[in-house]
Amino acid sequence: MFLTPRTTSAATASITFRADQPKAISPDLFGLFFEDLNSAADGGLYAELIQNRSFEYQATEQPTWNNLTGWELVARGAGEGSIRVATTDPVHPNNPHFAVLQVKHPGDGVGLRNSGFGGIPVQAGHCYDLALFARVLFVGERWPSHEDAGHPGADNAGDAAQKGLGPLVARLESERGDVLGEALLPSPGQEWARLSATITASRTDANARFVLLVREQGGLALDVISLFPQHTFRGRPNGLRADLAQAIADLKPKFVRFPGGCLVHGNGLGNMYRWKDTIGPIEGRREQPNLWGYHQTAGLGYFEYFQFCEDIGAKPLPVVPAGVCCQNSGYLAGGAGQQGLPLEAMPAYIQEVLDLIEWANGPATSTWGARRAEAGHPEPFNLEYLGVGNEEQITPAFRERFQMIYAAVRARHPEITVVGTVGPFHSGSDYDEGWKIADALRLPIVDEHYYVGPDWFWDNLGRYDAYDRGRPAVYLGEYAAHEPDRRNTLRSALAEAAYLTALERNGDLVRLASYAPLLAKQGHTQWLPDLIYFDNTSVALSVNYYVQQLFSLNAGDRYLPIVVAGAAGDNLAASCVQDRASGDLIVKLVSRSCHAIQVWCDLGHAGLFAPEARCTVLAGDPLAENVFGAPPALAPETTTMSVGAQLMYEVPPYSLSIIRLTRRSQPAA
Length: 669
What we know:
Elements: E1 11-17, E2 23-24, E3 32-33, E4 71-76, E5 80-86, E6 98-105, E7 109-114, E8 120-122, E9 127-139, H1 157-162, E10 168-173, E11 179-185, E12 193-200, E13 205-214, E14 218-229, H2 242-249, E15 255-258, H3 262-265, E16 288-289, E17 295-296, H4 302-311, E18 315-320, H5 329-333, H6 346-361, H7 367-374, E19 385-388, H8 396-412, E20 417-421, H9 429-441, E21 445-452, H10 454-459, E22 473-481, H11 490-505, E23 510-513, E24 519-521, E25 532-534, E26 539-541, H12 543-553, E27 558-559, E28 562-566, E29 572-578, E30 585-591, E31 597-602, E32 612-619, E33 637-642, E34 646-651, E35 655-661
């Protein structure tokens, strides 16, 4: 790996297009991979503003956590009370814990306060939808005889029914306690009921708090306390943070792989990601620890993932466990490494995978299609791809279970393209053994991963040139150029850009590719570098983001072979694709030279083009990066340039240039 920019003398290069030898390439090449890593979901893309809304946080996730993490008791005026956690008769058995609030002396109100995920950001004039589940346990000064069971006592139940605890006061407050908005919730009854209201913020505050107050003496059970901005992406209920989702949508991905990589097979068999636990009303979804060391509410679940894909015009690529848990389970939390589901449990698990396909594609009259329709989407989601497994250690346990799943899906749903896995590295034993399975089963496509230094990408531009086209196709599911200090430098981005030109050249074999990871919240990262950085109120785009965006916006479905000659040597990478729908010809040039490179292109055999082309350039100091909280130092700039039968272009030092030529059907007059 080089640590300082390479230098060369000024160079020239000629590029010849072989327009008579085009080949079809994948129209789905450039996509995204989302994993709930770096607080990407809860406190990130998922727009929920309340942290630990269901009182399910555990010390097994973070040593300092408990069921009341994120919550604190508040008492106004001469108020006095207490809060504890109960488990008897919850709203739903999938989320067994709930809060019990006792108001001993109401004063000006006793209740709970939540500061969200490091503060609740609100904007003046915006509306926020509040919903919670509540039931009265008792009214008056004393606990009923069955307080530990969480039920109203028989000697007190009549009082609860007749008097209640009055309306609940819900507020948004500043750190100093200034009221930023308020709403009243109706008085709860003796049975769990969902209460809702809307709070309008009177002013903007990035660090607001949510407060819920009771003004009568008694006991109240509370659960699933949720606060959502009405302004979510596309206005979806239980939806996504608008600015962050828009940044993802602006990448124009052709597909989205979700809900993760290692997250999917989980930290032990009990932590595997089970799709059925993530659909339906949020109070019935099973929350659980995140393999990466925090919590997942599953509020961003399978329905929301599929809906988001549809909203941004991307194909969904869900990944299900291959019947084994993560081989690193022992390292992460004292587990026993990779374990397989008992073979007697595999038929039920295989049916779970088949049910997913029915849920996604089946008619609304089918068993699982009806569940999709109940959620508001009667039309099928048109699932094409299904990933089975992620970076598994290729063991006999994995092999046996993967084969069982693949055989069942192929038999019942031959229209589904199953994506296999060949381990976490670009070579080695798992890679070799994974490819043996892929070849033996004749899988349609396998998922390769590698995180390597910038030089590796430049040195391996020919990697897929030599792949046998008779073997399974490739999905490059996770990759990134890693600097030693894990920064998002222009040098790393250009290394990735150079490699993407090679993927286009091999787009008949490499069908899909996605950078990883996608999202990272400031102060909450387990992995660097990432594509998009954010905090509660702002979003920052890395220079690597712009590379991904430029390739996606300038993708094609035909590759024109090119010959590059001249003194530019291994400092220049190039590709040429055509978008058959528009007829545009798109030339991509990547330079890691510290000098400009003079490029001459003969367009005579490539067709007739308009006299002006659009040229987009991303260039600068190779060690520069876009720093969070500051204006981007590196961003693409687009200009126009004149073209004729020949194209003369000076490639800037350390740059990605994309020249888009518009096809003209007739010669100029």
